[in-house]
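Support reply, case 0932

Customer input (verbatim):
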Amino acid sequence: MERLQSHRDFVGVLQRRRKVGGRDIVVHYLVLDEQHDDQANHRRLGLAVSKSVGKAVTRNTVKRRFRVLARMHEHQLPEHCDIVLRAKPSAASASFESLDHQIAKCFAAVANKAK
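Our regenerated output:
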């Protein structure tokens, strides 16, 4: 997966208000139309982990976990979509297995809603 890097891309996904959630994460998504967007050739991922999750070391740990899990489950997503994974404060204390299950479930829900 490529990364969402610009603020404009993040805001574009978040303003659409299409989301699915779990106990520790919220997945905001935007399915792109390949005819209208040149950037629509790949899935792109953005991470939003605020200071409410914890100090810098904790936030970076959560981000590393999210990146690994997103790579593991990206095959479930539609071909042309942008995803922003937002961590809830409880994500800092969640187990890796719990986050794995939640992301798999949320990505499957995104795929079903995108059809």
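We compared this against your earlier run and they match. Two observations from our side: The chain has a mean pLDDT of 91. The chain is about 40% helix and 20% strand. Please reopen the case if you see a mismatch on your end.
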